[in-house]
Amino acid sequence: MSKNTEGWGSRVGLILAMAGNAVGLGNFLRFPVQAVQNGGGTFIIPYLVSFLLMGIPLLWVEWAMGRYGGRYGDHSTPFILDNITKKRLWKYFGVFGIFTNLGVMAYYTYIESWTLTYTIKSLKGDFLGMPIDEVGAFFDRYVDLGSAINVPVWALIAFTVTLSLNVYVLSKGLSGGVEKVAKVAMPLLILFGAFLAVMAISLGDTGRCLDCDSHLGLNFLWEPQLDSLTNPKVWLAAAGQIFFTLSVGMGTIQCYSSYLKQKDDIALNAMSAGWMNGFVEIVLGASVVIPIAVGYLGLDWVKENAGFMMAFKTMPFLFDQFGSVVAVLGGVAWFGLLFIAGITSSLAMGTPWMGFVKDEFNWGRKKAALLLGVIIFFLALPTIFFFGKGVFDEYDYWTGTVSLVVFALAEVILFAWVFGMDKGWKEITDGADIQVPRFYRPVIKYVTPLFILIIFSSSLFKPLNGELDDWGDAFSHWTGSSTEQFYFDRGSGQWLKIRIDSDELLQWGGAAAGWQGTGRRMSELEDQGSGRLLDGSGSEIIQRSGWPWANDAIINQIFHINSGVQWYANGKPTNMLFIDLSRFLLIGVFVGIAFMVKVASNRRKKMLHS
Amino acid sequence: MSTSALLLMVIVQGSVAAATIYFFLKVLKSPVRHADKESSNHEDRAE
To answer: What is the pTM of this model?
Structure first.
């Protein structure tokens, strides 16, 4: 049916491209931050368990699905899923495998363009001697953060250049473009990462502050805190990290592996690519940002400020502390590394679209790549112009977080329960160059779907704070038999959990102005005149029944339960308006792809009957 | 660094590095087993 004759040039090329797909900015920025926020060294234990029980099974499932689809000439998830079961609705689940990639590629290429700009600026020595505040301010100016509508001219130019580079490589095909890039980029990435890790480890005590010692940072990352092993929040964070780091649930793995031959190994290939990603994350990713930041800014600063934006707002300042030569080398290595990690992932995100339109509409590579570039350009514009309104984060939340989990859950159920484990296991083990432990058969059927289901449901209905006892307390509160007290802050539009011990008030969660996380007396919050409870900014805190939604619970995000729908305030559009408009846009993209799938399906039927 | 942190770091990073090298070497050493024309699709489509 398909005239798509793409293919991989070599097995090593495939593995490097697959590892490049998985290795992204998150390996260097998300993983260490997650580890810091979830028990330091102990985080690694649930992380590795999640890798073994969810990551590896999902990798095998996706590789197997891809190779199976490729056998029938299909290289994108809608029709790969359609091949696995002829129940027609499943192919619309496959839409996620294209939609997610387009949505993520839009904002991801924008970040990628920042790294390109910062690499060039580091090379020119533009950050030398710049104080930390000025480095942060430079970023804000670069994305034009202060304006009502962000029109960052240079950032737009850099984005267009980066996107064009992606389009050019994709137009060269798999073996002639993506694979060639991966073969050069991945070794270079490891080299840069190793250089930075050596810089961090050899830094030691800088004497800048009492706890300014890179070894303290490593110690914090690796010190086992065994009590956090019993905390489900840590487990969920670790499982979530495995999801994002392996790029499962996106449809890119299926797409890449669909170009394999029928008797090619997938079991060993998947293990090799998966562990390579683990190496970059655990060995290199954990050894760069946190130790260097602790070395110059101290452990307390890092605990309070660790986050994604450290890469751009802090790292140039930190490299500068090494002296001008090392600062330039470190800056180029760091941002070059991020650029490589970014482009190898964004190229992977482009391939499902390429495979889809080539298979179904017989488009040539250049036409497919060019149209992809146009779509991504326009899809990215809202994230650029309304960066300060939260549109960027909204794309990330729906396409880069929620969609992955939904699709991964659907595909593993389809594979293990609809396709069936007998056939599924045969697909995984056919042509395998390693012995796949039979232990994984029940794991794929029961444990992995359950794992994902727990992650999904806990994100869907997450109560305030999301700790284990919060679920119980929230349930008691919801049913009206509450012993714990959930209050609602009208001013900030969020729940607060308040525990009162002999007039001593302990509060955590929420962000009511002025009393976050501190033990305060109830009487201090009472307005003496009215007896009402007021937060630090004078907003009223009320008792309210119902489920105490966490602000980032999916249901709360969809319906704006906590904050209420408010598109205009004082006659001006609120951030919520821009956020909701971006949601409609994303829904439009999803529906558009689903429509293309429908058209393609009809074309197939016609061809079959003619 | 404390001994327990150092120990955990060395064990975990060492194991992950060893697994990565092991599987990658296995890939390099595995024989290329097929040359069937039927399923060969290494040639890119002409524009």
So the answer is: 0.91
